[in-house]
Amino acid sequence: FTASGGAGGGAPIDGLSMEGYNAYSFQEVLVYWQQDAVLWDELVANLLYAGTGVFAVCFLALVHPAALIATAGVGVVDLFLFGSMVLGNIRFNVISVINFVMAVGLAVDYTLHFCHAFLAISGVDRVSRVKETMRTMGSSVLKGGGTTLIGTLPMAFSTSTIFRTFFALLFSTVIYGLAVGLVLIPVVLSVLPLPEAPHLQHPAHHHHHHHEEGRGESVEGGKVVLNGKSNGKQ
Questions:
Q1: What is the pLDDT of residues 84-132, one digit of tens each?
Q2: CA angle 171, 177, 181 (to 5 degrees)
Q3: Please, what is the end-to-end C-alpha distance for the chain in angstroms?
């Protein structure tokens, strides 16, 4: 090595001269320092990519403005995960960043299913539709979240810091996902005046009306109605 630290020239060190070579320092810890230097930018970029993908899938599934609500719920879950990192004294490193990106795919389960079930119910009373959605889809979402929580429990007993970090953040993701999907989203849907989604509603929720021109006749629930009176014809 040369005292100049650059290529060629310089006084030899201890009689050793390597003219024409450059010297570089390397330590294993430098890999993590370099990784941490770009970690925040990588997290923001990956969350934007994942969020865009989730919105696209939600919009294709619903074809309705409620896709924005489902996607916003996912963002709330990821925001809450920062609180879990503070409470659990979890370092911001590549392991926690992986969990943040994974949370996008996990949390959309709870928000999208509830929004879809809500829109599939017809009616103008939003509160009644939310209650019916809670009775039907709500129990399914709760069961799904419960089984996922059970699946994460073995990691809680691991001696590996990596597995314990995964447990803490995955457990938090499911808890926050259930809270958003079964508490926050129902409140939002019961307050916001969203348009109907007839393309998602089951035919059983609609009354079939068929008017025959010139006869003043319609069909309601299988009965023929003439001038507002049912003749009992099936």
A1: 999 989 999 899 999 999 999 999 999 999 999 999 998 778 999 999 9
A2: 155
A3: 100
Token couple for 211: 């008017």
Q: What does the alpha-carbon distance between residue 118 and residue 136 come to, in Å, rounded to a whole number?
A: 10
Residue with structure tokens 């390397």?
Answer: 26
Handedness of CA 200, 204, 206, 208 (dihedral sign): positive
d(CA 61, CA 122): 18
Query: Which tens digit of pLDDT belongs to each residue from 149-183?
Result: 999 999 999 999 999 999 999 999 999 999 999 99
In single-letter form, the type of residue at position 38 comes to V
- Counts of helices then strands in the chain (DSSP H, E): 7, 4
Q: Show the CA angle centred on residue 160, arms to residues 87 and 100, nearest 5°.
A: 50
d(CA 225, CA 211): 10
